[in-house]
From TrEMBL:
<keyword id="KW-0560">Oxidoreductase</keyword>
<dbReference type="Pfam" id="PF02826">
    <property type="entry name" value="2-Hacid_dh_C"/>
</dbReference>
<feature type="domain" description="D-isomer specific 2-hydroxyacid dehydrogenase NAD-binding">
    <location>
        <begin position="84"/>
        <end position="250"/>
    </location>
</feature>
<dbReference type="InterPro" id="IPR050223">
    <property type="entry name" value="D-isomer_2-hydroxyacid_DH"/>
</dbReference>
<dbReference type="GO" id="GO:0051287">
    <property type="term" value="F:NAD binding"/>
</dbReference>
<dbReference type="GO" id="GO:0016616">
    <property type="term" value="F:oxidoreductase activity, acting on the CH-OH group of donors, NAD or NADP as acceptor"/>
</dbReference>
<dbReference type="InterPro" id="IPR036291">
    <property type="entry name" value="NAD(P)-bd_dom_sf"/>
</dbReference>
<keyword id="KW-0520">NAD</keyword>
<dbReference type="InterPro" id="IPR006140">
    <property type="entry name" value="D-isomer_DH_NAD-bd"/>
</dbReference>
<keyword id="KW-0521">NADP</keyword>
<protein>
    <submittedName>
        <fullName>DUF4378 domain protein</fullName>
    </submittedName>
</protein>
């Protein structure tokens, strides 16, 4: 196979780094000061591999005249918790089951109306899983896909979607149009019994408005794998019992990370062989 100069921006996965080194001519960006590296190797880099935290910004792209492809080691996945499992776990660990008796009743997930913002690959995976719990699925995105998903209900606005959902899942790409797509108005529409799940990116949600809505009881609960200013989490959220907080680990399994690495490698090899990319972004 033709030798491809690949710039890895950060050592975020040992398997990926090993395979890149084996299959291509690998440059490790963290080993040399930026300007020194660019002076010595800018013309040899034809591919960049980054992730959600270490991306190829405009300045880096402009500095790499031979750059042909940017491959991203990044993904999100759903985590929905209506049964208060973390709270129930703490109840048992504190010995309260024995001293106080049975834990308070919760609400079941089956049958809940699930609205999904962004019916892409991740949104489809969420829909497939919640359908197994007999949950009606609704969605919002730029275009309706009635022929592809005849059993799903499409809403032309996020506010309408939220007003007709018990659980609202954010799974769309982040761009200028989707920044703060979950606004105060959307949270008001979701309501005091609604649950917001964000497995996209932190800036999808107006975090300040969300914290206020949760504190005031205008929003029932939230499951958050991402935040606006990671790793900084709003202090107010830490003391709330109606939220589940995760440190951006939606894809944090060995199996998923290997699959992500294999996808990066597959895209790079397809590019070298002039074959269609496996997951192109155009």
């Amino acid at each position: 196979m033709e030798s491809l100069g690949v710039l890895l921006l950060h050592p975020f996965n040992a398997y990926l780094e090993q395979e890149l080194d084996r299959r291509f001519r690998l440059y490790r960006f963290w080993e040399t000061p930026r300007e020194e590296f660019l002076r010595a190797h800018a013309g040899a880099v034809r591919a960049v591999v980054g992730n959600a935290s270490y991306g190829a910004d405009a300045a880096l792209i402009d500095a790499l005249p031979a750059l042909e492809i940017v491959a991203s080691f990044s993904v999100g996945i759903d985590r929905v918790d209506l049964a208060k499992i973390p709270q129930a776990d703490r109840y048992v660990r504190a010995g309260l089951w024995k001293s106080r008796g049975d834990y308070t009743l919760t609400t079941r997930f089956s049958g809940k109306r699930v609205g999904i913002i962004g019916l892409g690959r991740i949104g489809q995976a969420v829909a497939k899983r919640v359908e197994a719990f007999d949950c009606p699925v609704s969605y919002h995105q730029r275009t309706e896909q009635r022929a592809t998903y005849p059993s799903y209900t499409y809403y032309p606005s996020v506010v309408e979607l939220a007003a007709n959902s018990d659980v609202l899942v954010v799974a769309c790409p982040l761009n200028a149009q989707t920044r703060h797509i979950v606004s105060r108005e959307v949270m008001e529409a979701l309501g005091p019994s609604g649950v917001l799940i964000n497995v996209g990116r932190g800036p999808h949600v107006d975090e300040r408005e969300m914290v206020a809505a949760l504190a005031d009881g205008r929003l029932g609960g939230a499951g958050l794998d991402v935040f606006e200013d990671e790793p900084n989490v709003p202090e107010a959220l830490l003391g709330m019992d109606n939220v589940v907080l995760l440190p951006h680990v939606g894809s944090g399994t060995n199996e998923t990370r290997k699959a992500m690495a294999d996808l990066v490698l597959g895209n790079l090899e397809a590019h070298v062989l002039s074959k269609p990319l496996l997951t192109p972004v155009v």
